[in-house]
Design goal:
The protein has 298 residues and is mostly beta strands. The protein has two helices and 24 strands. 28% of the residues are buried.
Length: 298
Amino acid sequence: MKNLFLFFTFLFPFLSCFGQAYIPMPADSAVWRYRIYDIDYITQINDFILFSRGQDTIANGHVYHQIFSRSSMQTGGIGFNPPIVTTEANLPDLYYGAIRDSNKMVYLLEGSGEELMFDFNAGIGDSVPANAGKIKVTGIDSVLLGSEFHKRYHTTDSLFYLIEGVGSSEGLLPSIVDGSGAVVFYCFTYNTETFIPDTIYPCTYIYPEGYYEAVWGVNISSGDLNIYPLPASEFIHFNVPLGKSFDGEIFNALGGRVWKGIIATYSDLEVVKWPRGIYYGKFTFDAGQCIVKKIIIE
């Protein structure tokens, strides 16, 4: 798990950066993790995520990827500051807005209309949106997230920078609140990619009640697939009824897919080299019917 938190930086000459293929914002399975310290209610802390789950909408002739929020509100005494951990949501998922990527520019659609959030056409000396104003680009380099290099744009504010396919050092939406609270952006995850501005904080998710049943919004079925042993250390054995097969995917606790394949009668999967921890398997059959299983590797 520790490897997922490593954030490697590779610096390149500016000209080589300009030749990199553009990486658009993800359309699904992406998560941005935040915390809000509400200064109107000193003891109120809101951990929340913004996430995309592959749902699109059309407005003004453009296709947008919908963004949702999921929250866990906590309160406590003076100085209350709960640790950043995996937790369950205590508020329902809400539609937050929608984004679209066009000609290396990223737009946000909200109730008031469309707003330009990120301009990845910018060169050194150009101005780009930042919070409610503009800021100048001072340098361009690259960072390696997962297996892909993402172009990064430094600005006149040493703490604020843009990253293709991620957003900024402040997450997806730099102007996420109206100034009534202090916001901290903790991390971004997408498949095997992880970006953490400050690696002293872990990158964890906020799950809804009944997460194991609801994580992919699938229908749960039972009795047709047996997985053993659990916990597993060397192999996972799948016992499937004769003549039936499943399309299988296994995800780590951060939502990154670690395996994909077809499972038939008495299939085996070697896991001896997998990091210890909790994984989740999604097994699809019969025109979209799914089973979601918790898998522990130790």
